[in-house]
Amino acid sequence: MIEGFDVFLLGQSIVTLFAIFDPIGAISIFSALTQNMSVGERRDIINKSCIVSAAILFTFALAGNLLFGALGITVTDFKIVGGIILLIFSVQYVLGRSEARYGKAEQEDIAVFPLATPLLAGPGSISVVLLMEDFLLKAIVITIVVAITWLALYVGTGVLKVMGRQGSSVVSRIMGLIIGAIAVRFIREGLEEIQRPR
User: Fold this and answer.
1) Is residue 18 part of a domain?
2) Is residue 28 part of a domain?
3) Is residue 106 predicted with pLDDT exceeding 50?
């Protein structure tokens, strides 16, 4: 604990959001979608995708409580539905996330889709951010995870060559298991809070 700031919670939150982002798993998809592009074009896509994903998450970090209030949603409600969403994501990760699923991106800006969303700032990431209670915690976690993701994508080609497609797939599945465990925790905590006397 540093001046009232929970360092353990910070580390746990970083690991959680990092697992959802899965930058190592996203490298193979990024490489496949940009294999015919120049180095400069690839760097532009990386920069834009990270900026857009950060903007999406910061928007929900700022407006999340207002959205809850307007819709009459409690954190407990969102813990349960967020956990269900994460659980679905974890199954997809463990079973394997196919690059073909996103189709050809010839007519679309792949920096926004599918890289920024839904790969990075998708429902799973948004759920995790909304479930964090402190804005400072949200800001630090989002900044750190997006920075790590930017670095991972920047050197992604080299990493992919070292790890190989199979190595990247193994890491992605491990991340899926972590996401699944986190999802079960969210659902369990939500159900426990509902059962508590008010």
Assistant:
1) no
2) no
3) no
